[in-house]
Amino acid sequence: MTYDLWYWDGITGRGEFVRLALEAGGIPYRERAREPGATERTLIDDMQSPRAHPPFAPPYLVAGKMTLGQTANILYFLGEKHGLAPDSLEGRLWVNQLQLTIADMVTEAHDTHHPISADDYYEDQKEAAVQRARGFRDERIPKFLGYFERVLTGPDAWLAGGERWTYVDLSLFHLVDGLLYAFPKRMGTVASHYPNVMALHARVAQLPVLQPYFSSDRRLAFGDGIFRQYRELDAA
Fold first, then answer.
1. What backbone phi and psi angles, to 5 degrees, belong to 67?
2. What residues pair up with 231 in beta bridges, in sequence order?
3. Where are any strands of DSSP class E within the chain?
4. Which of 111, 47, 59, 46 shows the shortest CA–CA distance to 220?
5. Considering its fold, how many domains does the chain have in total?
6. Angle at the Cα of 44 (from 104 to 54), degrees rounded to 5?
7. Residue limits of the GST C-terminal domain (predicted)?
8. Is the pTM of this model over 0.85?
9. Number of other CB atoms surrounding residue 48 within 10 Å
10. Using one digit for the tens of pLDDT, what is the confidence trace for 205-224?
């Protein structure tokens, strides 16, 4: 089966977590909003089309007659169906729990530059963003990365504890990649405190199954998505 992945064109965003799993798993998919002739209206029209289980927002995955929304939900499905998660129910729930924790941090990272309203421009809430970013840098980055550092048992460990990566390792890679882009000064200061996390980031970056994707135009650069680089929001 070839899946249809729907997400905003030109933005890494939450869609990248799903892309990484599809690409690393060698799973056939089409990114429908990036096909020739597609526009933002194409995505909106599809999202609002009648279906039994409509998605609230992108990303969503169409798998035959099923439509799956929410990043963690999509990854749970792909993990079980395509061997990207542990075989046991306990293991699958564990990586889902970790994925949901990543989702919490992703939301907080987004809110550093849109602390008041996602519908208003960053420039209209810059003062609040500076304050929100300070708390994120000083308190939340250490809290979240410290947690994942504790989960990892060593520099060669994967989050699920097995001998092979799961989808949540790919997601932690993208989370760290986003933090390195948006907060380079802060990450330059604290990265050494989380050697296991940074080792995992480096190992995912070198996975042979991901090299064709990393070198292709399918992989989008950071920009106007969740992770944004504003100099005034970053500090060591």
1. -120, 120
2. none
3. 3-6, 29-31, 60-63, 66-69
4. 59
5. 2
6. 65
7. 88-233
8. yes
9. 10
10. 999 999 999 999 999 999 88
Give the gyration radius of the chain's Cα atoms. Answer: 18
User: CA dihedral defined by 210, 215, 220, 221, rounded to 10 degrees?
Assistant: 110
Write down the residue that tokens 């995992």 correspond to.
200
Query: How many C-alpha atoms does 233 have within 13 Å on its Cβ side?
Result: 27
* The pairing of beta strand 3-6 with beta strand 29-31: parallel
Q: Is 112 helix (H, G, I), strand (E, B) or coil?
A: coil
Residues 6+ apart with CB under 8 A from 70: 55, 56
| Domain span at 106 | 89-207
CA angle (185, 122, 98) in 5-degree steps: 60
> What are the phi and psi torsion angles at 107 (to 5°)?
-60, -45
Q: What is the CATH number of the domain that holds 185?
A: 1.20.1050.10
Say which DSSP state 65 is in: T
Same domain, 169 and 102: yes
The pLDDT of 106-110, averaged and rounded, is 97
In a domain, 132, yes or no: yes
**Residue pLDDT, tens place only, 147-165:** 999 999 999 999 999 999 9
Do 61 and 122 fall into the same domain? Answer: no
